[in-house]
Automatic annotation (TrEMBL):
Superkingdom, taxonomy of origin: Eukaryota
Keywords: Membrane, Transmembrane, Transmembrane helix
Classification via InterPro entries: DUF6594
Keyword Magnesium: no
Kinase is among the record's keywords: no
Residues in DUF6594 domain copies: 20-288
Segments passing through the bilayer: 224-243, 274-292
UniProt protein name: DUF6594 domain-containing protein
Length: 305
């Protein structure tokens, strides 16, 4: 298969990093962009081959064990490790030699297996960060094709399901993810025009149009929004239910506010389903008070004059 030829970037004398060093510089400055291939298929294929080798060696060992059990001079092999390991003849040492080969193969297999377990635990990158990295490699004003060999295709869309991130951007809840999606729209419509962005350190040579926003500002904004909503919904429901006199309207308002509360908990936190149910039930229990009969104390018994 022929690969498309990418024109070489113009050669300039510069202190800026080039090639792999340029990509590494980008990843070191923005660690959320440090993404690499998992090679899941190759790793699993390698494990299958190693497993097949061990099974084959295991079967060969069984044959040797059965053979030695039928020889008078090898009867002690099952009972005495020393006799097994120090057979007097070449054939007498075959069983233990096979064990030593198996031992090495098992170490390789177990190591590879545990490494694969660790790789499987690494998270996939944030989709926006992955799309940005791919565009960075391809755009002349950013990465400008820093890698020309076939591995430049490692971050292409067809490989996105096989990419892992070293330090991925983690959105703690749905509302944070929504704010992250809103940020790109804000950047295009307002931030870029008003220069409300943080330029990357000069002299890094990772792109002419690289800008980033302080995530702490976004996190603080999300915290403020969540705090206001957490305080507003319960108090608003209490006020509305207090003002309503008809029980039918009160029931309808309770349903609406309970739904709003459950949606807010699910959207703005990482609460599990059972926690959402428990919190909503507690919220509804508080509001039920307003459906109780009028608890105004009745006047005490009066005597006739």
């Amino acid at each position: 298969m022929q690969t498309s030829q990418i024109p070489l970037p113009p050669r300039k004398t510069t202190n800026s990093p080039r090639g792999y060093a340029k990509a590494a510089t980008l990843m070191s400055i923005h660690e959320r962009l440090a993404m690499f291939r998992r090679f899941k298929q190759l790793n699993y294929q390698s494990l299958l081959y190693m497993q097949a080798e061990i099974v084959d060696l295991q079967n060969e060992l069984k044959v040797l064990v059965i053979r030695d059990q039928g020889l008078d001079e090898h009867l002690e092999y099952d009972l005495d490790w020393w006799d097994l390991a120090h057979g007097k003849t070449r054939s007498g040492r075959q069983q233990f030699n096979k064990v030593k080969i198996l031992r090495k193969k098992l170490v390789e297999y177990n190591t590879a297996l545990l490494q694969q377990v660790s790789l499987a635990k690494l998270e996939s990158p944030n989709k926006r960060d992955l799309d940005f990295l791919w565009n960075w490699f391809e755009r002349p004003t950013l990465g400008n094709f820093p890698i020309l060999s076939p591995d430049r295709e490692s971050w292409d869309p067809e490989n996105h399901d096989d990419i892992m991130a070293i330090n991925p951007r983690v959105s703690p809840d749905n509302i944070s993810r929504w704010f992250q999606n809103l940020l790109s729209f804000y950047h295009r419509q307002l931030g870029e025009k008003l220069k409300l962005k943080k330029p990357d350190p000069p002299g890094q040579g990772i792109g002419e149009n690289m800008h980033s926003y302080r995530e702490s500002i976004m996190e603080a904004t999300v915290d403020y929004v969540v705090t206001v909503v957490a305080a507003t919904i319960p108090l608003t429901s209490i006020v509305v239910l207090y003002l309503l006199k008809d029980d039918g309207w009160k029931l309808g308002a309770m349903v609406i506010f309970s739904a709003m509360f459950a949606l807010a908990v699910k959207t703005m936190t990482n609460a599990r389903k059972i926690e959402v149910f428990a919190a909503t039930a507690a919220f509804a229990a508080v509001n039920v008070v307003f459906l109780s009969p009028d608890s105004t104390p009745s006047p005490g018994p009066q005597t006739k004059s």
